[in-house]
């Protein structure tokens, strides 16, 4: 038995001191082939320092053996020594047998640095040189998947599946195709692949994507069942709660939906969107106070979330909390451009507070945005009429009567101003 073989036996037995002794003997006495095999085994076990030491020794002896430079570079990349890895790879020319391997290693290196475009360029060069090399096709597909170019990754995965390859590097390619279709909003094709995966073999991410896809296809029972399975197996998977709640709402299970949103908030208490969904759900079960509470909490987390501010403003107006609404919107208007609905809500609030000057100001500000809204047209026309702004009252009444010619009251008021 060689020193290398003895070293590996001690390593597998967990006898590190004996391994170190045998490794030292192997390093100095075993032949080159045995040492190279030892380096490969050690790297697979995570003993990269010893593996690199052997590769470097062999490279010194065989300086034209470029595959050793690739092996060393792989280790350097895993250690974060990217500059040194690139230096090693730069010695490998296009005519080298290791050039293809070098391109793949460079792609890996650039990907770890977040230089995805450069990484893709290297992989495309490699694929051009070896179009049928499965590992290169897979690496390119994975890069495209990672960077969100799902429609480009799908043909590559499918090419491998057609060759009978359904798994590479512990990655299920059928899953990848299904998730890629789902992320590309092609839900019909997505579910065809995702439903091939047994639930017991699904990761949390795949369960979520499958349940989400069922939701988009309006197959609510399947969506709910799978979201609930995910909740049981991985209750900290915060993303599931908004969608499970929405699926339940589609079946008019509003009380159940509210409980799901509330459970989600216990998992992710800083998710302002969950507060918004909880508020909407509370309104569906006719609990305005709870809805207001959730909207205020969401507003505290993200004071600039215009959707939450709008819903809170609408609710404050509906609950006749005009002073609160004015305070909410005027603090926001200082630094932001308002949604047109905010102008209308401010006008209503100031009118209710008998602040006719500000009410007039905000009805005018809202006017250009709601000329097709019959509720706005009539209510604002009445305000202008009562406040003495006959010109605006007439213009709004004219627009209103065009849309609602059957409203005799409005037509009569307009007739009053026929001399204007």
UniProtKB/TrEMBL annotation:
It comes from Apilactobacillus apisilvae. Transmembrane segments: none annotated. Keywords: Repeat, TPR repeat. This is Tetratricopeptide repeat protein. TPR repeats lie at residues 204-237, 238-271. It holds the Pfam family ARM_TT21.
């Amino acid at each position: 038995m060689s020193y290398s073989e003895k070293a590996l036996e001690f390593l597998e037995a967990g006898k590190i001191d004996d391994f170190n002794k045998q490794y030292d003997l192997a390093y100095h006495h075993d032949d080159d082939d045995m040492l190279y095999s030892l380096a490969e085994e050690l790297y697979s076990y995570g003993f990269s320092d010893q593996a690199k030491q052997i590769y470097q020794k062999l490279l010194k002896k065989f300086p034209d053996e470029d595959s050793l430079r690739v092996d060393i570079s792989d280790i350097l990349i895993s250690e974060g020594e990217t500059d040194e890895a690139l230096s090693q790879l730069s010695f490998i020319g296009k005519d080298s047998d290791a050039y293809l391997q070098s391109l793949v290693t460079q792609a890996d290196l650039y990907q770890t640095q977040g230089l995805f475009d450069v990484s893709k360029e290297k992989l495309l060069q490699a694929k051009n040189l070896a179009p049928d090399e499965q590992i290169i096709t897979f690496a390119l597909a994975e890069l495209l998947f990672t960077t969100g170019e799902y429609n480009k990754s799908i043909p590559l995965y499918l090419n491998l599946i057609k060759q009978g390859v359904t798994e590479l590097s512990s990655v299920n390619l059928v899953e990848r195709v299904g998730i890629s279709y789902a992320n590309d909003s092609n839900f019909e094709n997505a579910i065809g692949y995702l439903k091939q995966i047994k639930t017991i073999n699904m990761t949390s991410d795949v369960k979520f994507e499958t349940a989400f896809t069922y939701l988009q296809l309006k197959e609510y029972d399947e969506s709910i069942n799978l979201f609930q399975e995910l909740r049981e197996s991985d209750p900290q998977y915060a993303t599931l709660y908004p969608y499970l709640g929405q699926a339940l709402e589609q079946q008019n299970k509003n009380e159940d939906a509210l409980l799901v949103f509330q459970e989600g908030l216990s998992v992710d208490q800083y998710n302002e969107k969950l507060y918004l969904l909880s508020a909407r759900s509370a309104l569906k079960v006719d609990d305005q106070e709870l809805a207001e509470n959730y909207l205020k909490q969401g507003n505290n987390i993200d004071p600039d979330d215009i959707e939450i501010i709008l819903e809170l403003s609408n609710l404050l107006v509906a609950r006749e909390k005009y002073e609160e609404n004015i305070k909410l919107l005027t603090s926001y208007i200082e630094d932001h451009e308002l949604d047109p609905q905010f102008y209308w809500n401010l006008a209503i609030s100031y009118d209710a507070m008998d602040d006719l000057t500000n009410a007039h100001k905000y009805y005018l500000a809202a006017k250009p945005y709601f000329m097709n809204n019959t509720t706005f047209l009539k209510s604002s026309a009445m305000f202008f009429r009562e406040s003495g702004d006959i010109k605006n009252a007439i213009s709004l009444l004219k627009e209103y009567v065009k849309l609602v010619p059957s409203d005799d009251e409005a037509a009569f008021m307009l007739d009053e101003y026929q001399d204007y």
